[in-house]
Amino acid sequence: MDSLTHIVLGAAIGEGTLGKQAGKKAMFWGAVLATAPDADVLIGAFMNDLDKMIFHRGLTHSFFFIAFFSPLYGWFISKISKAPVNWKQWTLLAFLAQITHALLDSLTSYGTQILMPFSSKAVAVSTISVIDPFFTLPLIITCVILIIKSNHWKYRQFSATAGIFVASGYLLFTIFNKYQVEQRFITQLENKGVEIVDLDVKPTLLNNILWRGIAHSEDGIYHVGYFSTADGRDIIDFLEIDGNHHLLRNHMHLISVQRLIWVSNGFFKIEEYNDGFIFNDLRFGRVAEFSGDDSPYAFSYTLIKDSGASDLTVERIELQINRSREGGSIRKLWNRMFGLD
């Protein structure tokens, strides 16, 4: 989830947990602690592209790490804060702010390794977009009100609880919505005679209305389609994509290839490229895929053969910003959501 969402959620949790004892300091520390798991971004800055992708949302987002460091954070804050709150209470806030960060990230589609170091499985429930204003806005409004009002305002804890309650209610809706949409994808794929090996269904950016589904079939073909809950269409049109996995047949044993397959959760397309290959992550598709444009994939990597090296060199292909394309993409996304195209 985006940093702003984590900050306002942490601030609301801080007020709801320790606001009576610590005043607005509880909001401040709640916001700080809610961003603590993303410290892995700073560490990842010193890693190569592939290691950075794997490390982010890894150990610092795990239940084990959060449980271990929460008492340390709690002790540290108790020493520097003059609020009448003991280290156990600060520890509770540290745990709640961080664990909600990890759980919220696991509801998005990028994958969060919440079970590390016992399991490297990345949990991606994919019920909510990484940026969803319907979840974030109630928390922003709540925090603005709490910042404006004094520490003695009698409705502070009620307001914090109400903001969290509304946001949590929306999360429950996204889970229910995802289940309904996913069943529709499964039914229509089965009616087409597609034998599904794996299926990934997620909401598109900024909304929970337009959903993207991609199925991996037994014949090695991927089937990509979009379904909107607001455009009145019942039939999903699927685009078939050949993953070209045979191009990597002689390289499947290499660590770089195995790690990229893990990152993409097995949804990928290979293209030949100079002295190597391009690895496209199909889970996120093309930047403007829903509009039918031949735009670049959101996540692509070059795999370069280096003579004498035991593995392929991996580099992320940076997405070039195209103002005309991006502006048109948002407009087409809106039109596709409501069947205006």
What order do the SSEs take from the amino end to the carboxyl end, as H and E?
HHHHHHHHEEEEHEEEEH
- Unreliable parts: none
- Span between termini: 29 Å
Radius of gyration: 22 Å
Range of strand content: 5-15%
User: Strands of the largest sheet, in order across it?
Assistant: 1-2-3-4
Domain module tally: 2
**What is the SS-derived class?**
alpha+beta
Sheet bearing the most strands, described?
Answer: 4 strands, antiparallel
* Mean pLDDT over the residues: 93
Assign an overall shape. Answer: globular
Helix content: 40-55%
Number of helices: 10
Please give a structural write-up:
It is built from ten helices and eight strands. By secondary structure, it is of the alpha+beta class. The protein folds into two domains: 172 residues, no CATH class; 146 residues, no CATH class. The strands form two sheets. A four-stranded antiparallel sheet has the order 1-2-3-4. α2 crosses α6, α5 packs antiparallel against α6 and α7 runs antiparallel to α8. It is globular.
